[in-house]
Amino acid sequence: MPSYTRVALVTGANKGIGFAIASDLCRQFSGDVVLTARDVERGRAAVQQLQAEGLSPRFHQLDIDDLQSIRALRDFLRKEYGGLNVLVNNAGIAFKIDDPTPFDVQAEMTLKTNFFATRNVCRELLPIVKPHGRVVNVSSLQGSKALENCSEDLQEKFRCKTLTEEDLVELMKKFVEDTKNEVHEREGWPNSAYGVSKLGVTVLSRILAQHLDEKRQADRILLNACCPGWVNTDMVGAHGSRTVEEGAETPVYLALLPPDATEPHGQLVRDKVVQNW
């Protein structure tokens, strides 16, 4: 068996929290760190910025909305590293509060990237995650808030421990469809596309962790969702109460859980503490 270098990968890492996570991993992770970005020029500029600080990340293009791009990355990781040790799914989008884009368009675009594309990354890359691997899906307490603002019927569905991945996908599709038909409020949905998308990520993380327990228990892979907090980024604007470095702390903590750790797993974590939701 060839002995491969360990590798950690961060999606959407050319700026904001993703950049801070990649920076921290370059300092703390024993192995290579691959910084990915949709835009090649911005990605390479981010790598150069870290190199100027004496760090040595690698760059690989990744547009999570493009399945071929995800698969090209998967093939690169297989060839270069024989798989993957740490995956941080950070890439995501959010519309500004005052954005004039119609709500149904916001819903479709936000869920396409934040939920469906993140799910695609997991589907393609989880099979190549090595034993004792760590998977971190950057979610948000906005997802928990969205859940609280759902109807009791929807809350029950999302909290149900036997909810399948297929059931979850159908719920996410229904939200988008209901916004198009202008019945989402009547159907029990909140008025936050971002919140619903992150609720989907949190619930997906619980379901994927269950899959890992069923199919790969001996591999001791830990998969969690996390909330970085209200961070001062392009996405939030200058309203955030935390720096990107502070926002990176919990994702990096989960990415670097020691090999003998058994928890947290399938949880939503904020400030390194498991959240009830």
TrEMBL record:
Main subcellular localisation: cytoplasm
GO cellular component: cytoplasm
Enzyme Commission (EC) number: 1.1.1.184
Presence of keyword tRNA processing: no
Record field: catalytic activity: S-nitrosoglutathione + NADPH + H(+) = S-(hydroxysulfenamide)glutathione + NADP(+); menadione + NADPH + H(+) = menadiol + NADP(+); prostaglandin F2alpha + NADP(+) = prostaglandin E2 + NADPH + H(+); prostaglandin E2 + NADP(+) = 15-oxoprostaglandin E2 + NADPH + H(+)
PROSITE patterns cross-referenced by the UniProt entry: ADH_SHORT
InterPro entries recorded: CBR1-like (IPR045313), NAD(P)-bd_dom_sf (IPR036291), Sc_DH/Rdtase_CS (IPR020904), SDR_fam (IPR002347)
Annotated GO MF terms: 15-hydroxyprostaglandin dehydrogenase (NADP+) activity; 15-hydroxyprostaglandin-D dehydrogenase (NADP+) activity; carbonyl reductase (NADPH) activity; prostaglandin E2 9-reductase activity
Pfam families named among the record's database cross-references: adh_short
This protein's UniProt keywords: Cytoplasm, NADP, Oxidoreductase, Phosphoprotein
Location relative to the cell: Cytoplasm
Membership in a protein family: Belongs to the short-chain dehydrogenases/reductases (SDR) family.
Record PANTHER family: CARBONYL REDUCTASE 1-RELATED, CARBONYL REDUCTASE [NADPH] 3
The protein, known as: Carbonyl reductase (NADPH)
Species of provenance: Physeter macrocephalus (Sperm whale)
Gene behind this protein: CBR3
